[in-house]
Request: fold
Amino acid sequence: MRKNFWFLVFLVFSGTLSAQTTISIEKFGVTKDEGQDATPAVRKALAYIRHQPVSRLIFPKGRYDFYPELASEKYVFTSNNDDGLKRIVFLLEGVSGLEIDGQGSEFFFHGYISPFVIEGSKNITLRRFSVDWERTFHSEGKILSVDKDGMDLQFSGQYPYKIDNGMLVFIDKKGVEYPYGNLLEFDPAKRETAFMARDQYFGRNLPAREIAPGQVRLLVPDLEGIPGNVIVFNALHRLCSAIAVSDSRGLRCDSLQIYHCGGMGIVAQRSRDIDIDHLTVTARPGSGRVLSLTADATHFANCSGRLRILHSLMENQMDDATNIHGIYVQVVRRLSATGVLVQLKHEQQVGFDFIQPGTRLELVRSTTLEAYDTLQVQRVERINKEYTSVEFTRALPAGLMIGKDVMADIADRPDVIIRHCTIQKNRARGLLIGSRGKVIIDSNYFHTPGAGILFEGDGRYWFEQTGVRDVTVKDNVFDNCNYGVWGNAAIQVGSGIEKEYQPASRYNRNIRILHNTFRVFDPRVIHAYSVQGLRFAGNTITESGDYPNRFPDGKRFTITDCSGVEVEEK
Amino acid sequence: MRKNFWFLVFLVFSGTLSAQTTISIEKFGVTKDEGQDATPAVRKALAYIRHQPVSRLIFPKGRYDFYPELASEKYVFTSNNDDGLKRIVFLLEGVSGLEIDGQGSEFFFHGYISPFVIEGSKNITLRRFSVDWERTFHSEGKILSVDKDGMDLQFSGQYPYKIDNGMLVFIDKKGVEYPYGNLLEFDPAKRETAFMARDQYFGRNLPAREIAPGQVRLLVPDLEGIPGNVIVFNALHRLCSAIAVSDSRGLRCDSLQIYHCGGMGIVAQRSRDIDIDHLTVTARPGSGRVLSLTADATHFANCSGRLRILHSLMENQMDDATNIHGIYVQVVRRLSATGVLVQLKHEQQVGFDFIQPGTRLELVRSTTLEAYDTLQVQRVERINKEYTSVEFTRALPAGLMIGKDVMADIADRPDVIIRHCTIQKNRARGLLIGSRGKVIIDSNYFHTPGAGILFEGDGRYWFEQTGVRDVTVKDNVFDNCNYGVWGNAAIQVGSGIEKEYQPASRYNRNIRILHNTFRVFDPRVIHAYSVQGLRFAGNTITESGDYPNRFPDGKRFTITDCSGVEVEEK
Reply:
């Protein structure tokens, strides 16, 4: 009785506290619109919150600037990004129940800095702010002329550079370098990748000379591009994603604008229950830029629970709008009757520690991607960011193929809803769907240079576990997809299964494509193989004539090595 | 009584154990001379030792190979080296009382791997093994010809390369790259830096074309070099020192041969009681190499207690034989009446966390390097690898100069003995002596292209705290020092104090130079400023004529702004 009384007192008291738990960043010594470095204030605020009952941190509407000098630091491994010792503004570790509300503020970042890294946290909400950089990690040059020996480009003052030892090097005001990888041509009028443009060159400084202030001649033969179009020199590395989430539960991103970052917009790994609503990824209006951020708009590896992306615009980014998948490790050595050495093979997956005692792993042939056994983990020893030794509760199967078979967690399979989104004008594809949970993709608009929706996954190069089980694609508009080189149909199954193994595989299952509208300029609508259960019904297909038809003899449906296929054309 | 009895039983029992505590690496699955990767065996052995009473790990005499794939991993900050997430073979953390005895074995390392990282350990002995790499971090090319537009070089198969996009890139068998920094000319007959050779170029791939297999023309104008000499392309980074020790007590290195590593031979920081005996640093005999390791042979930052280097040969390395100093942080911001923000300014000093509650710091003018106050630390918050906020037990002095004054620990001052060593044929200087403890340098042989002994230290560029208090230099031979560009006398005080501040400073004190022999080819023997107490007596100076005398009008003694000077010439 007495116990209950004190418990009630506690409840009343904590209720009182929670009603007063909003705090303003101004309390920590920063004022909006003054150009000062707001990073130390965030540091202080997060330290304060750690020991006080604060549930909401607000930024009075205005501009805030963030610099790396006094930012927190942590070595961060984020799947499909580059690992490194990073400077981080909002480093949330083990935080529970916090909302950060920008109230419409603009957050400007400077240099190599990561806006949000959220690890081991619960119920975090981010809302109403924009993310941008003063100096982008990529650079954009307008094509003045092209000939067989080189290309003349015009750079605005947004993209400082120097010619160093005969090489074009991009820098910022402080002289910090911004190394570039692929070069890609964009059509600035359409704000999309130029028709059938492909990546040119990768990852070395290119020989160049300055022909006038802001004008550079690239001394590289056989470059392709149309004068008036824009060449984007993309960031070589993915070091500074805007929001990177690991091992957390309950993330809500509401009304965020991510105009730029040096990586992905929102990337989550080994996390569950993620809601994204009214996200805008776009090249900042009025900035003159054609590129928004330098990799995927969103990306999810080994996530589970609920995953929703609603009412969002994802455009102009250098890679897909989303990619939802698991991670395969390769079995590289047999250590005992029950133990193996496994390797994270892709260099942007290193440090992805998902194997724990008790984890159930599927054992998969990398040829067909079909699972042939399931093993439960007894003991794990992480050797380094690439290699882990794993001991199972029972003997390994006899047919284990060392250096070929791969393994992945079978429990991580979010239920996905992607609804009322606009997905367009980026490099590559729209949605890469690889969850084995229930997936609903409806009422979206797609205008992507590759496939609007791709079912990918492979065990030999990207090491991404996919293989859907229950997907409904309905009431979407696929408007002139495939105006670039990154696909061969509006909806495509492009798993990394070689032709000879496709008959033996049914890696993806139960895909229903219903009541969508396809506006096409070449015939290709569906390309699929190794699918069990593919239904196409109630869809409308119209010819747009908006781009050249380079495949007049192409087929609407290229469906091979599939079972349970029903295609009903109107 | 009963208690004492059991204590005696314990003593006897533990005595019995310690008599049986030698273990062989063979127990952990590796056999000498078989070329297999011995790294996992070391990992297992160190894990075993952690829970068993082992005091000695032996390697039966033979060859052992170590690869990075299955090595341990840790983010390591080592002073005056490059920080990074490193693969480490012998990672000793919190180990107490262990001897690793190679019994004359040869340890060969492959790729980006750190042989020994020892942190927070006590009484560690390393003995009787050599350290080398199959593919060195630097590359060496023999000069075939030189003209104003470029230089033709011949590379042996030891130094694989490719011409990538018109640029010379060094690689190994696996295609891993080895970026280069400075280029330096060596005389292969003398196995020393070429007379008055200086560093050329820094840190970018250079344009080149292959003119025949193994022959490359560097397309760089105005390169200097004599046909027949060797150009060393030094490693751009210092990532893989052979033995890196932090926060440890009691290190003994006995009879080690370090033929190569991608950094320093033995580097210790914040550690005490270090004995080095019969160390050999040299370009591996018979290898054809002119360079041994790519930075200093040994290096000590903020060490204390005993520091001895005896009976050692240190030659052919890319930087000094040793450098003993403390680290200055710069005061960059006043945070309160009692608190400041300090910064580790040099990029190879980041992560050097030496400030703890209770630490006594001297407050120093960066102009004169004179301390003007001492403060005791109350509280410390490390912000990131560069910045730390420090609160003191009392108010800051009024005259504190923000962005100029520096601070360093006053307690770290080892007593140094360097005796019976040969120090020669490297790039730069011999001994950089910056300890405030008692220093004895006797019975050594010096033949260095810069000063044999340098008293350096500064608060504006290298941020190295020195300022000796009690140094005896006796019975050494200085044989034709200063045949290169890195000094202006056999013994030199070169602290970073600008001319106008030298009269006001007595940064170094009590240097006695007694009974040494100086063989010189130009007149310069002593160059000193801002010293209190300098005695030169009983020394012999003879003219060698072994190199051209470029300073016929030079003076034997250039001693300015010093007090208590006694020079007795024989």
The interface with chain B takes residues 43, 69-73, 75, 83, 85, 87, 164-167, 204, 206-207, 341, 383-387 of chain A (CB under 8 Å). The longest strand of chain A covers residues 96-109.
